[in-house]
């Protein structure tokens, strides 16, 4: 308990340090906690490896998926197939082949398990790093799409490889139907959980309780999916995407409360998770210390292979014209370098490595377990610490074209669209007709400047908000109806292909804030 409290306070401190020196706080948290773990007075606390993924993966995946939408996946399905499935398979194949060839003591099942452990980049690390370096939005969106589902494929292969290593059997093609069936079942569970959460929220009036439901849901659907031998990763992501699709225009306060709630949850969970990764490094080094020097050549080859496979794959996609027809990613060698550098391993890699059983079914030690764990931790450090600390420098040197203008263009277009629908709703409102003409004129003027408020112009000042809160109740009600119509339009736009969810969320948040100011 003391360790947990220390990690929570440490996260807050490290976030502040990271903001000042412009470095990602998850990487700093890992380094600081690893350094602390080696101090003589540091307590020896070990975490059950089987608890790492169930504790940290559901809320972090849910938080990341909330920032996306079904339309993004429909638009970027090629990215999903090429990066979250085929690249994972290619990485597993290359790493397994090299490990089997270079280290004679490693059997094929253990080699495949190693490939599955080091294959999936960590979506949490990537988002935490990419969000601080003004990376082009199209690259961030591609990395988000890759990161949300790549763990699913890797975990299925890992489980099959471990079962074969323990039983002495082989890894066969049954992995493919197992993955497809597990993903399909998880998708159904995610849809069902989203429906259940929506139904519960209609009966629970308390805003905080409704926000708390969204914290329980990812844990519940993840554990249920794993119990039914489905993909917990897919189930959590589908739950978050479906809840976003079911969002209602009138839930302004709930959205604002939930957004703030999840910002805190995500920050603290990320900090604690990477803090534990750093602490576990001490025990890995202590446990494998006698053999580490002998592992160095093989580990170096594995680390180089992980980086080269990702670079080669991105180069191949570039030569073929990018992942998407309308929006080429990567579109240049510079973008290939960035996407390669952002292949950071993290929580899933460490958790899977530590979850390797120590013995086989016959009671004999699992072959080359020490090498697999040491190689996995080395890949984690090489792909996370180095790129995490140098990505800001790399982005400054590459000077990629800034696509924020496109994001601002979408924000402006959505703001104008919301204003048009708000004016139409106000003009057709029966309640508005009960107001004196001069009051209707005031409302019309305010709705006519709605786009400026949504675009964040200086018009949206505290004094204006204060005066708005003092208007008559009937005027407030008319404005609520108009703003409800505007929110409905933005939510519909968010579901359509071609609309960046981030642009829609910016406009929607400003609409929600505008509505909250009407409450007395």
Automatic annotation (TrEMBL):
Its main location: membrane. Pfam families: Na_H_Exchanger. Keywords: Antiport, Cell membrane, Ion transport, Membrane, Sodium, Sodium transport, Transmembrane, Transmembrane helix, Transport. It is found in: Cell membrane. InterPro entries: Cation/H_exchanger_CPA1 (IPR018422), Cation/H_exchanger_CPA1_bac (IPR004705), Cation/H_exchanger_TM (IPR006153). Residues 11-396 form the Cation/H+ exchanger transmembrane domain. It is a multi-pass membrane protein. The keyword Glycoprotein does not apply. The chain crosses the membrane at residues 51-68, 80-103, 148-166, 178-199, 219-243, 264-283, 295-315, 336-359, 371-394. Belongs to the monovalent cation:proton antiporter 1 (CPA1) transporter (TC 2.A.36) family. Na(+)/H(+) antiporter that extrudes sodium in exchange for external protons. This is Sodium:proton antiporter.
